[in-house]
Write a structure and sequence with these properties.
eight-stranded mixed sheet; single chain; alpha+beta
Length: 144
């Protein structure tokens, strides 16, 4: 599918996948140099995306995996990780010929998410996602 986005400096391609919600995947030369909010926000709100999209910036790391940074809709800023975004990114990378059926993605949290793509059917890929989960916030709601 041809996407209507112009590449910015340091970007190689932009892909799209739905993994529960819409995701754009932007292949860049170096994720550490990306202005995640400055570039992610206009892509997230592009009029061609009826529901908007999460935006993930990726670049290869030194170990054969990938580094990923995420602009997440709803949060409207950079988040430490996104599970559905990792799945969407693995699908786009695999379909682009950049990875095999297993992909490691080093997130901003410093933790790696691993995605394995099982067989593809007419309804799409059957992915599995593995990685560390942590409680980062607890709250108590009073009665309303």
């Amino acid at each position: 599918q041809k996407l209507p986005f112009r590449l910015a400096e340091g970007e190689r391609w932009i892909g799209f996948a739905v993994a529960g919600v819409p995701h754009l995947v932007v292949r860049v030369d170096d994720v550490e140099r990306v202005d995640v909010v400055g570039r992610g926000r206009p892509l997230r709100y592009d009029p061609s995306l009826a529901q908007g999209a999460n935006v993930h910036f990726i670049s290869p790391d030194d170990s054969g995996g990938w580094r990923i940074r995420t602009y997440e809709r709803g949060v409207e800023g950079e988040t430490l990780a996104c599970g559905t975004g990792a799945v969407a990114t693995a699908i786009v990378l695999h379909e682009n010929g950049d990875t095999g059926p297993e992909t490691g993605l080093l997130t901003r949290s410093g933790r790696t998410l691993r995605v394995r793509l099982e067989q593809r059917t007419l309804s799409g890929w059957h992915p599995t996602l593995a990685g560390e989960a942590r409680i980062v916030f607890q709250g108590v709601l009073g009665e309303v």
